[in-house]
Design brief:
The chain has 254 residues and is an alpha/beta fold. The protein is 45% helix and 16% strand. It has one domain (7-249): 3-Layer(aba) Sandwich (Rossmann fold), CATH 3.40.50.720. The structure holds NADP nicotinamide-adenine-dinucleotide phosphate. NADP nicotinamide-adenine-dinucleotide phosphate is lined by residues 15-22, 39-43, 67-69, 94-97, 118, 148, 150, 194, 196-197, 199-202.
C-alpha cells in the first residue's frame, strides 16, 4: 500500500483524550512527533494538562472541545486541527462511555440512543471527515484510523453492559468494512480491543464480577493505559504499513 503519510508524522486527532486511555495515546503520539488534537467533551482542565505535558517535551498539541455525537462540533474540530496543526494523517476514535450498568430489559430507549450516538455514530462521523481529508483520491496524503473497540465485543463483556458491548462489536465490523473500501485510497483502518484497563471508566465498575474477571485474567491484573497506547502507536506507524482490517486484542490473555 502506498501511504505517504506514513513516511512522516503530520496531524492526529485523538478523541476522548482528556483522561484514561486517550490521554496516554495522545501523550505517546505527541512524543513520537505528531501534532496532536487532544479532544475532550466536558473536562477541559485535564485535556489542557495533557497538552501541557506534550509541549513540555517540545511537542505540538491543542485541546479541542467537541462532543463526538454532535456533527457540527466534529466538523469544527477537524477544521481547527488542519488550520492549526497541518494536514491530517491519523485519527484515533477513542471517545466512549459504558452507560449505567443494568439488565437489558431495564435499559431506557433514550440511554440506548445516546450510547449509539457517542460510541458508534460519533466514531463514524469522525472517520467520515478523516477519510475526506486523508484519501489520496481527494488529494490527501493517505493515513491511518484506529477505532477503540473492546474485548467485550469478543467475550460478551461484563454483566449489565449489553448495549455497550454491542457498540464495540459494531466498531469491529465498521473498521473491517471501511478498511476494504479505503485501502486503495492509502488509508489503513484497524481496531484495538482492550481488556480491563485501569481508568475512571473501570473504577466505577468494580463489582465482585469485575474483580473476578481481573482475578481470572491469565496475566492476573488490569492493563495500564500506556499498554494500549503502545499498540495504537504501532498501528499508526510505518512498522504496520501492511496491517489493515484487523482487530488487535490487548487483554492480558482474556
Ligand atoms: P474514560 O477514562 O472514561 O475516558 C473517556 C474519555 O472519553 C474522556 O476523555 C471523555 O472526555 C471522552 N468522552 C466521553 N464522551 C465523549 C463525547 N461524547 N465526545 C468526546 N469525548 C467524549 O474511558 P477509558 O477507560 O479511557 O476508555 C477509552 C476508550 O477505551 C473507550 O472507548 C472505552 O470504551 C474503551 N475501552 C476501555 C476499557 C477499559 O477497561 N478502560 C476496555 C475496553 C475498551 P471528558 O473527560 O471531557 O468527559
Amino acid at each position: 500500500m502506498s501511504n505517504t503519510a506514513e513516511n512522516g508524522h503530520g496531524t492526529v486527532i485523538v478523541t476522548g483524550a482528556s483522561r484514561g486511555i486517550g490521554a496516554a495515546i495522545a501523550t505517546e503520539l505527541g512524543e513520537a512527533g505528531y501534532g496532536v488534537v487532544v479532544n475532550y467533551s466536558s473536562h477541559e482542565e485535564p485535556a489542557e494538562d495533557v497538552v501541557e505535558g506534550i509541549r513540555s517535551h517540545d511537542g505540538r498539541a491543542i485541546a479541542v472541545h467537541a462532543d463526538v455525537s454532535v456533527p457540527d462540533e466534529v466538523t469544527e474540530m477537524f477544521e481547527r486541527a488542519e488550520r492549526e496543526l497541518g494536514p491530517l494523517t491519523a485519527l484515533v476514535n477513542n471517545a466512549g462511555m459504558t452507560g449505567a450498568p443494568a439488565p437489558f430489559d431495564a435499559q431506557e430507549p433514550g440511554d440506548l440512543s445516546r450510547l449509539m450516538a457517542i460510541n458508534v455514530l460519533g466514531a463514524m462521523e469522525c472517520a467520515r471527515h478523516a477519510v475526506r481529508s486523508m484519501s489520496t483520491s481527494h488529494g490527501g496524503r493517505g493515513g491511518s484510523i484506529v477505532n477503540m473497540a473492546s474485548v467485550a465485543a469478543h467475550t460478551g463483556g461484563l454483566p449489565g453492559l449489553v448495549p455497550y458491548t454491542a457498540t464495540k462489536g459494531a466498531l469491529v465490523a465498521f473498521s473491517r468494512a471501511l478498511s476494504n473500501e479505503v485501502a486503495p485510497e492509502g488509508i489503513r483502518v484497524n481496531s484495538v480491543s482492550p481488556g480491563l484497563i485501569a481508568t475512571d471508566m473501570t473504577a466505577v465498575l468494580m463489582t465482585p464480577e469485575t474483580k473476578e474477571a481481573v482475578a481470572t485474567t491469565p496475566i492476573r491484573r488490569m492493563g495500564r493505559p500506556e499498554e494500549i497506547a503502545d499498540t495504537v502507536t504501532w498501528l499508526l506507524s510505518p512498522a504496520a504499513s501492511f496491517v489493515t482490517g484487523t482487530d488487535i486484542t490487548v487483554s492480558g490473555g482474556r
